[in-house]
Request: fold
Amino acid sequence: MVSSTESVDDHPAGGLTLPRLANVPAHPACLVMTSMSSQYRIITVCTGNICRSPMAELMLAEAMAAAQLTGAAVDSAGITAYEVGRPIDPRAARKLAAHQISSAGHVAREWRNDWFQSRELILAMDVDHYGWLRQAAPDAASLAKIRMLRSFDPAVAGKDPLDQGIEDPWYGGHTDFDNTWELIRASLPGLLDHVRAALAQPATAETGTPIATTGQRVRSNS
Reply:
């Protein structure tokens, strides 16, 4: 399981303990052993790629390492160019570091449409990211890959995407980043189960990677 050292988060203007593994580097990006193209690829998506999505990326990579799950990779991006090239928000970095997860290599980046083809699971952090990704998706196969990250949280699984969002902590303080951590952490056991199931699936003829995704539909407020 791999975490990219590139990434993008957020703005204009429970339950799972993540144990450290013996001899495992603090940043799971150091675990890269095989080409990402041969793996089950996950990407987490928020606004600017400096808060929510890199936190989710690094927390999921750490959880996969702790579970000794191999054959999967995770990275992150943002739907805007607001923060491109910047490091992770220091408040997010501080929260991760408190749990011995390094974010030192993170550099914010903007979503690229070719990632609809090269990723098997696309995780939106909030409903606006979910709606944006669905509008940008070029085909039904891409749509089926898009899910809210918290659709894997038993507390809100099965609910409308409008009820599964993680609000942007950038506008708040340390308590908001604590809340972001807890909401992401609650989704990790379900995500790990999903990855295990996906890796157990036979590889597709085109990509050689397993596909095990279920798209969501978003409710309209109009």
